[in-house]
Amino acid sequence: MTREATLIAGDGIGPEITQATIEVLGAVGVKFDWDEQYGGMAAVEKAGTPLPNATLDSIRRTKLCLKGPLTTPVGGGYRSVTVALRQEFDLYANVRPTKTIVPGGRFQNVDLVIVRENTEGLYVGLDYTFKIAGDRRALAQAMSIVTREGSERVARFAFEYAKAHGRKKVTIVHKANILKATSGLFLESAQRIAKQYDGIVASDDKIVDNTAMQLVIKPEQFDVIVTTNLFGDILSDEAAGLVGGLGLAPGANIGTHAAIFEAVHGSAPDIAGKGIANPSAQMLAAAMMLDHVGELDAGNRLRRAIETAIVQDNVRTKDLGGSATTTEFAAAVARRT
Ligand code: NAD
Fold this sequence. Notes:
By secondary structure, this protein is α/β, with parallel strands linked by helices. The chain has helices spanning 14-28, 40-47, 53-62, 81-88, 148-164, 182-195, 208-217, 229-242, 280-292, 296-311, 326-336, and strands at residues 2-8, 31-37, 64-67, 93-99, 111-117, 127-132, 135-142, 169-174, 202-207, 224-227, 250-254, 259-263.
């Protein structure tokens, strides 16, 4: 069976790591019919806009996208295309797994997944300054929007994810002791969903500041975490830092009508075109895409092949202390699929 999917190679190191990823997907034997589209800087050069309608139409049709990192100009220029895509397709669950792959770091057995609500909270854009007594920026106010429906759907996603991936526990992370209305509603809604999974997936809850501390003391205690937008943003970067950083961190943005898979890192302009980028994060994102379309065995094989290439075969790119090029690493992974 061949599935149609949109492919955005991206900017900077995007084309290099995407090419390497297509190669290993070929090796695991799952076929995709790629509809190649553009976004970011590459799209500005080709179509005069960072997010062409053809790209949106393609994702609308295929509902599935593997995306490379896209450059966002700092200061002026266009808004983040990655954020625009999340909003356009209502990709409400941002899923970021964190797992120890390279031995010898501070933590040996980290294997957790953070599910971050991706559309509500403090990221809705209601962020204002007010003028008082001639000072145009004397007061600032941000509004956080939390809905029962939004909280329940991301909680349901987290529990379904746990069930499908053999995970044992979902921890609901909140600040309901202080933010009684917003965080309180999130906690109450998520707990209601948790009850529906009694006996199937265990659950507990933790206050966000305690969670941040527990993550750096005993990260092995966490399995799946579900939380609101800002807390998830911060905790998922903290978690990536526990296991060796960006080159190994994949992410998925999932909604009802579409899903976009990508590496957490950016376009790395400092190493673009040199052939030394680590394609692991993009490959791990592709493995999540395989899970998403029901190819769980192929997803697991790809993850195992990446681990074996790094740990057993000791084929590592520069960021992991090795000297392998992007293509040499891809070949090593392909051999192990
Ligand atoms: P970055 O993630 O691109 O790079 C940070 C550092 O990590 C750099 O030193 C880079 O060389 C290194 N690095 C990143 N990925 C690597 C890989 N796969 N292998 C080896 N080293 C790697 O972050 P930045 O420099 O802050 O951002 C560059 C551009 O990327 C900006 O325009 C930013 O807006 C964009 N960006 C896009 C996304 C996305 O599309 N999802 C995410 C983050 C940043």
